[in-house]
Description:
The protein is of the alpha/beta class. The chain folds into two domains: 34-92, Alpha-Beta Plaits; 119-250, Rossmann fold (3-Layer(aba) Sandwich). It is 24% helix and 14% strand. It contains eight helices and ten strands. It starts with a helix and ends in a 16-residue tail after the last helix. Mean pLDDT is 90; it is low at 261-266.
Amino acid sequence: MFRILAERLRQGHRTPAYPDGPPPPLPDRFRGRPVLDAGRCPSGCTKCAEACPTGAILGPPDRPRVDLGRCLFCADCVEACPEGAIRHEQDHRLAVRGRDDLIVDGGARTLALAAALEGRMLGLFGRSLRLRQVSAGGCNACESDSAVLQTVGWDMARFGIQFVASPRHADALLVTGAVSLAMRGPLRAAYDAMPGPKLVVAVGACAISGGPYAGGPEQCDGASGTVPIDVFIPGCPPHPLTILDGLLRLLGRLGPDDGDRGAPEP
């Protein structure tokens, strides 16, 4: 016991100060928000769209757009572009409230970060949010990056956010996976079992659009055809910091310009 206490004292405080301080450092290989420079696109070039495995690059060629709901953040488009017109920043902030808000370009259509809940909903959930996680056909990547938020490294319970074992005790579903046909019924049953009012958080490309499985006959191209979604958190998988940022924005803990300490300017 004394050895455990001594080691704990040696390690010190392990939970980052975010959002009251800078976000924890992200690895150099981290791929955050994609940025397009349409002015550098060669006339008629479609190499980035051809390289994208999920059709996340939308046309026309002279005005490309990126659907972050489909994007796997694989960087195949970055490698395929001969002019370097697309790149990934290290900006972790990706969560939005509307599906259409995930479609961005290199011009006026920028990412509209998630706004807080309104009125009574914010009063109910702003200080206490209980999540029931439903893996509806996921590969366990988004599930793992969601679960790690319960550890001392992130400690999302300090914000009043916790996972619970039953949808009857939950305020919101946190959905991961492309929603297989076998999981469509259980997902809807979990939603129906929650007391109202209730929320749904879609985490990862699979839950938003089907991800790499989109169009497959045994899945539903994401959760939106089964349950209504209140916040979309893209990625494959989204970083724990991205997930936490989205939840805090939903609860009004972050404003439009908060959470960007240390993030590069676009």
